[in-house]
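Let us practice reading a record.
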Amino acid sequence: MTRRARFGVAVLAGLLLGCAAPPLADARRSGFDEMGESTRALQRDDAANPAMLWVQGGQLAWARAPAASSRACASCHGDGTALAGVAARYPAWDEGLARPVTLRHRINLCRERHQGQAPWPAEAEDLLGLEAWLGLKSRGQPITPPTDARLAPHRAAGEALFRARIGQLELSCAQCHDERAGGLLGGTRIPQGHATGYPIYRLEWQGMGSLGRRLRNCMTGVRAEPLTQGSLEMTQLELYLATRAMGMAVETPAVRP
């Protein structure tokens, strides 16, 4: 019997006996690991990381009432210390909408429900800043998607979107980030596509952007109609990506080429 066959028998036996299969080494790599040293140094140094400008803006937005008749985020949540780890647990279920929402969607829902303000556009500076500031409070913590059973069908739908061939090029997310990860595309290393540091500062953008923006860029790149920011389908895809990166460390705010 070959070594591979013996391993397969051992796994099957473990499952039949109700035991865990032998642990496998985690071969997942963050996009940070695929970057050049100068870009990694930029992310490591908070004094040099350009994304920290948005973090500072988010901190100011947290303490500022959006209108004379409204309360600031800080009036309910204090200095935000109690929210450490929250960013690692999104997308999560929203009772009012009866669907999963991302962290930036949650921020906008609080803005509507508790501050009486119109939601910010998807890539608004204040929204990116608040998401980055809250994400920083979870930096280094493991990504821990909720175990809420209501999320299961949405997670499955997100995985289906990840594996579906789309656009005129008929490519899926999985074909690039699972099958061809580590290869080259136009001289650029293809990452595994783990969403560990959003919102991120991209040198290509010369600014901050959400995970939704990055996903829409990929969809446009394969000549597909991009999903709408904040749509259920986009949230389902982000939920699956969070599950795919489960246990990896939050890097927010990250820097990418």
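A brief commentary: Strands lie at 92-94, 99-101, 184-185, 188-189, 200-202, 207-209, 254-256.
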